[in-house]
Amino acid sequence: MASAERTQEILKGLREAVVAYDEEAAARLSKAALAEGVSAYDAVRQGLAAGMEKVGEMFAKHEYFVPEVLLCSDALYAGLDILRPHIRAGDASEVRKQIVLGTVEGDVHDIGKNLVKIMFEAAGWLVHDLGTDVKLEKFAEEQARTNADIVGLSALMTSTMLAMPRVIQMIKARSPGAAVMVGGAPLSPEIARQYGADGYARNAGEAVREAVNMLSRLGTKG
Amino acid sequence: MARQDRMTSPERMADLLGGRPIDRVPLFLFAKGFSAVNVGYPVASVVNDPEKSFRAQVWTQEMYGHDEEPRLSYAIYGGWEFGGEVKFPTGEFAQAPSISRYPVQSEADVEKLKLPDVKTAGILPLMMEFCRLQEKAGRPIVPSFESPFTTAGNICGVSTLCRWMLKRPELVHRLLRLATDHVLEMMRYWVETFGAERLRPNEGAPTESNNMISAKHFAEFAFPYVKELHGKLLAMGVKHIASHICGEQNANLPYWAQVPMGDPGIVSFGHEVDLATAVKYFGDTCVIAGNIQPAVIQTGTPEQVYQLCGQALAKAKYAPRGFILMPGCELSPLTPPHNVYMMKKAVTDFGWYEAVPSDV
Q1: How crowded is residue A91: how many other Cβ atoms within 10 Å of its Cβ?
Q2: How sure is the predictor about A220, in pLDDT bands with cuts at 50, 70 and 90?
């Protein structure tokens, strides 16, 4: 069993490994955490995920860009692959939140959607990633199947964002309590409101915070 | 009563590029898929059917009285040309072709990658057929490509390109070398076919956006190759390069300003770049074009579009080398026609230059 001091050293090392996009260090420290009896859940939440949260903030402040964030996520997943199998049911005190994510029909752009996925996974959410060019009805179907808290819709093109109001209507018709947030280059808070979305995230770095605020605002879940 | 144009589009553009007075601010619509839908053709035809593409763009130009030469182009340039596969747009919301298989899937593929045959690769035979229609019609000829950095991303996928920039920069430099050399070969073929004088090459540069990469990475990877490419195109005898500096690129502008564009070049911007900033960096050497937000043209009211255009004209109409009113990026095929008309109306109401003698 690691001492409190050693535990803090490992957790700090995991955070720093993610921020420094050091995949090797993230894997090595994750193994060390397991070998020395640090809780896998703590290593994920207070180590890797905390590091990725910092990365999200740096991305939102234009200190990091897509290349850096992608490599940070590689370090994150290098650690998660080792630690996740050792997390026990009941380690988490809260029910895990869920999001259905996808890029809407007609649009194959996936970088923004994937960055959002990374941020939600790092924050402990269960992500149901539908991929790109997702048929409109699929979002409502997946939300109903999973009872996800949120559906996140992405579009990079001005034409494909036009699919969003129709998707939102389908989701609300099937599950009135489900929240929908939208994002992507052509979107704005005004267009999001016009389309009937409950939330809008300007970038991946702000997406999780906006999701939590949105659920709190709506008072439905979370 | 609205004032009438005193010049035809070809006269207006020739005089603008020749540094002579013109009657009014030219209008570009950046309307490719929109043009196809406008005349009842499938969106894909603007890319994969040269005759329909040319006809649709010419008719749309005539309908809206805009001044942009037609072109057959796409933002995924390089993906098909270097051996990958593309999917043409189908379906209600699709706007543009996409890459369904990248030519480079692994690090080993980069070493094996060869320069494509510019007479047969990807879209180039279609583009050549399209340019022959422009030649036959006595119009300027517009070969189109993407910047070396955007082309490199289209060869291996942007996520892979981003990872390699930090982990395997030598692979990125090899892709950029190939992309640059390929466009130079392609343009040599066009110069041999049509002569340099008639060419008005058009380039897009979306992947350089600072939503993707930092200015530091722009300087390291994108800048040297685009600078080299433009320098060599101008040395071939090309007079004017039109470059669409797409999206949020404010931090890259000090570098872009060092890229030769011709005398003058045409640089166009999205709404993310303020026109006053564009004039500051490029006004002395280039015609400035932009920057009406396509999402507003699509979802806004006619009054909003008209107001945005009026503000843009007030800001940039007297740019030293001229100004072109234009959407900040390609119009969606589903843009309401009345909002497109608002761009024309704004030019007609606020775009006149008082100095043209025949206009008094």
Answers
A1: 13
A2: low
